[in-house]
Structure formats: C-alpha cells, structure tokens
Amino acid sequence: MENSKNILVVGSGGREHAIIKSLAKSPKVNKIFCAPGNAGIAQDAQCVPLQVEDIEGLVNFAQRNHIDLTVIGPEAALVAGLSDAMKNYGLKVFGPTKSAARIESSKEFAKLLMEKYGIPTASYKTFEDFDKALEYIKKGKFPTVIKYDGLAAGKGVVVAKNLEEAEVALADMLKNKKFGNDKVIIEEFLQGPEFSFMCMVNGEKVYPLELAQDHKRAYDGDQGPNTGGMGAYSPVPFISPEMKERALEEIMKPTAKALLEENVPFCGLLYGGLILTDEGPKVIEFNARFGDPETEVVLPRLESDIYDFFTAVIDGKDFIPQWSHDAVIGVVLASKGYPGSYKKGAEIKGLENVKGEIFHMGTSGQKGDFRVNGGRVLMVTAHGDDLPEANLNVRKEIEKIKCEDLFHRNDIGKAIL
Ligand code: AMP
Ligand code: GLY
Predict the structure, then answer these.
(1) Closest ligand 1 atom to 214 CA
(2) Which of 86, 174, 335, 353 has the fewest CB atoms within 10 Å, measured from its CB?
(3) What is the best residue among 294, 331, 361 to mutate for testing ligand 2's pocket, by most ligand atoms within 8 Å of CB?
C-alpha cells in the first residue's frame, strides 16, 4: 500500500497549502491534486483548473483520476454541497455535508443549536429590520457585537464601541446588503483571550488537535477592521491542559453530539473559535473546516501521518495523533488595502532566501516570478523551541521578502511573549 494513494485537495489558500505539505510527508500518498490551487501550491501539487463550487467537475475529476481521498478546504465548497455529492458517488471525502456545515454558514443555526444543548456562548437576538435592530441596540450596552448571518469571509462581524459605529454596521448589512440578503445577529460582548480549537470529528467521535491563536484585526495592537486572520501561533500557553480538556468536554464533544442528535452528523473538521471568559470557555463562532491561518501553524507540528489520521476519522476508528513540542509562529503578508480593496500583480522578491516554511495564500505566476493575487498573499512561518525563539526566527525571514504592495503585523504572538 506504500505510495499508492491519490488525493484531491479542494481550495486555493494557505490552509490548503499546509494540508498538501502535510499530506506530501505521508509514505502512503502517491499524487496530490489541488483544485484550483495557486502559484505556490503548484510547487507541491498538480493544480487543476476547477473552481471549488464546480461540483460536477470535481466529482468527475475524482472518478476519472481514481482519487482515494478528497479533502475540502473552503466553506464555499461545503455550502455548495461538494461533500454530499462525493458521498453520493461513493467517493471518500473529508468535509461535512451541506446541512452539517450550517454550523458555520448560518450563525442563527449555530446559536439555536448551542441554546438547545446548553453549549456556552454569548446571549443574542436576531433581526431583519434595520429600525428594530437599532432600537434594540440603543437600549443595550457598548461594546456590542453585530454579525451578518451568512458567509462573509470572516468580515461580517463588527464590534461596535458606540451607537455611530453600530448604526454604520447595521446600515451596511441590512440596508445596503453589503454581504447579501441575510439577517443580523446582535450579541453580548464577551471578554477574554480568544483561541482556536480545531477537532476532527466523525459523528460523536472527536479527535482534538493542538490549539492555536489567530489575530483577526488588520493592524498591530488589535486595531483596524476584522480580517480572515493576519497571523497565528501554536501552542497556546495561556490555555492549560485542564482548560483544554474542559473546552473539549463542555463545548466540542457536546456540539458533535448535538449535530448527531439533530440528524446532521458531522464528518470533517469542526473549528471552535473560543474565548476564555471569567466563567470559563465560551463559543464565539464555529467553522465547518480548517481555520486559515491556524492550519498553517498547527499541521507543521503534527508528527503522525495525516493520511492515516484522515482515514481513521472517516472510518470512525481510534487515532491518537503525535505532536512535536516545537512552537510555530506564522505571519500573514497581505495586500495594502486588505480587507478593503487592493491592487493585484506586484512582483514578490526574495522568497527563495526564506528558511522557514512559506504557505501561499494568494499568489499567481511561475516559479521564481510570484505576483500578488489576493487579499492575503503569503503566510511565513518559523519554528523554535519556544514561542520567543519562533518569533525571532519569523521576524528574520519576513525581512527577506520584498514587495511594495504588501504589509504585515509586527506583533503576532506578542501578547504572550
Ligand atoms: P467571528 O467571525 O464570529 O469569529 O468574529 C470575529 C471576531 O469578532 C472574533 O474573533 C472576536 O474577536 C470578535 N467577536 C465576535 N463575537 C464576539 C463577542 N460575542 N464578544 C466579543 N468579541 C466578539
Ligand atoms: N482564522 C479564522 C478562520 O479560519 O475563520
């Protein structure tokens, strides 16, 4: 069975690049395809020009190329029903069905589920009407949290410090329909450090990964708008093993069980965006897929064969992953202007000099001639015996990359250093 398995990874970002680099280490893996991939991914997998929502194209491709396992990266593919279609054709797939992915695609579904099963989270109310939402906010406290109910690539959340900010956010979402035609959720503001708890899940079986922390705000000091994530590190020293166990028992396992009881069993990666409050860990959000950029700092620490891990989960078998004690820090290089509008096409120089691992999030071009092709462009990671050492290493490596149109945060992991 050595070297015989063909894999299809669906997606085109740093997360998919990290999954591919992990899979490439498995002696069982023969060929890795990525749809559609990007210029950097093309160095590690064969990219195929199929979009993540092209369900028919992807199913046909998997059948024709004898794909033994498809790993779905982005939520858009899940929401389009890719996992359902793959399963219908008897293909092995890692990623939940469309209905199970509602834990991410509908914040209201997630909230109702948590309420029904007593999973700790912020209290909330749902609104479709601008005036009613504004009236409710006027009666409440600040800061308050306003969330668009559909998918918004991590940008549909506004923590409003005052009424003016709240009004702008509500107008964007309910009047100007900036993200689409969905409702908004207005939520109690929770206080505490956030951390990302990713677990592989199949039905009631939950396989926890190592923890990471993401940095969602665009600029240093957690200033600026929310983004998809500007950097991450793993492990997370402020969460003790006991607290992780508590989050597993009080949040991740009950959520997997709740989905099963609601007849939407989950098979894939359940991402808990958690916050450690005075009352213990609570849920900020769930995602139905690997976190980006958390995956780029967690998977490099996985010492077990990830192909074995994926198949054990899909087959519902026990699997205890082994992790390295290394610390990993990753910093995102994003286009100036992101998460707003930005320019594409600038040349990126110096990548060949970087010693740490680089995950491509949004690049185009050929080997040696990489160009900016997205909001988040590159994730540069470095290892160390501990986080301070990883931090020194990643700083050195970033300096080697030259591109006038990119910016990055200088304080990833700084709060704990
Ligand atoms: P989300 O997309 O739901 O993860 O929200 C993005 C970011 O907004 C989170 O990482 C938090 O920093 C912040 N946030 C969301 N909900 C809350 C909340 N209820 N209390 C405090 N901060 C929140
Ligand atoms: N880093 C947060 C996310 O993947 O949604």
Answers:
(1) 10
(2) 353
(3) 294
d(CA 331, CA 399): 12
Is the minimum distance from the CB of 285 to ligand 1 under 6 angstroms? yes
Name, in order, each residue with C-beta under 8 angstroms of 385's C-beta and a sequence gap of 6 or more. 325, 326, 327
Of residues 123 and 414, the one with the higher pLDDT is: 123
What is the token pair recorded at 254? 């009950």
Atom of ligand 2 lying closest to residue 293 CA = 1
Residue 154: pLDDT above 80?
no
pLDDT digits (tens, 9 = 90+) for 168-213: 999 999 999 888 878 899 999 999 999 999 999 999 999 999 999 9
Q: Give the residue, by CA position, lying nearest to ligand 2 atom 3.
A: 291
What pLDDT score was predicted for residue 155? 65
Q: How far apart are CA 255 and CA 118, in angstroms?
A: 9
What are the C-alpha distances in Å from 106 to residues 52, 73, 112, 324?
20, 18, 10, 35
Distance between CA atoms of residues 24 and 233, nearest Å:
22
Q: Pocket of ligand 2, candidates 103, 196, 226: which has the most ligand atoms within 8 Å of its Cβ, to mutate?
A: 196
CA 207 – ligand 2 centroid, Å: 19
pLDDT band at 153 (very low <50, low <70, confident <90, very high): low
Q: What is the pTM of this model?
A: 0.94
